[in-house]
Specification:
This protein is mostly helical and 150 residues long. It has one domain. Helices cover 89% and strands 0% of the residues. It has helices spanning 3-14, 20-36, 41-48, 51-66, 70-149. Helix 1 (3-14) runs antiparallel to helix 2 (20-36).
């Protein structure tokens, strides 16, 4: 695991359990910890341990600091988190619909172009037959006449 993955897991593990400002405060704290440490990134990661366990500790400490009001603040954090993610989901879903719409329009346009190409080729074939048919009939008649004279 690298530092980037550590912070992604820590953030994901905190969001929805503590308010957003508390998430940012903890992320900032551990980023500073990485920055100020004289240890290597790997050593700091080993020292801090599993970010999920760290998040659980932060959540429990937050709940303890709020005492009897902890449930209220936890509900507020969940609400904050779900609003943020639902709007992101809606935006992502809207973009997906937009892509699907343009994909369908593109498929319809390509279908129309293929049908036009087929019709054009059929028209060309009919025109060629219109010119060649009399020539073929004339050749057949000449062949029959030549065969009949021999």
């Amino acid at each position: 695991m690298d530092k980037k993955e550590f912070f992604a897991i820590l953030r994901e593990s905190l969001e929805g359990y503590v308010p957003k400002e508390e998430v940012e405060k903890n992320i900032s704290y551990y980023q500073d910890y990485f920055h100020e440490s004289e240890l290597s990134e790997k050593e700091v990661l080993e020292e801090l341990g599993d970010p999920r366990l760290l998040a659980r500790t932060v959540i429990e400490a937050y709940k303890a600091s709020k005492g009897p009001m902890a449930d209220y603040y936890m509900d507020q954090a969940r609400s904050e988190y779900s609003k943020e993610h639902s709007s992101a989901y809606e935006e992502e879903h809207r973009e997906e619909k937009r892509k699907n719409f343009f994909g369908r329009v593109g498929a319809v346009v390509i279908g129309i172009l293929i049908v036009c190409l087929i019709l054009f080729l059929l028209k060309a074939a009919v025109q060629i037959l219109y010119i060649l048919l009399p020539v073929i009939l004339l050749l057949i008649v000449v062949k029959i006449l030549i065969d009949h004279m021999n």
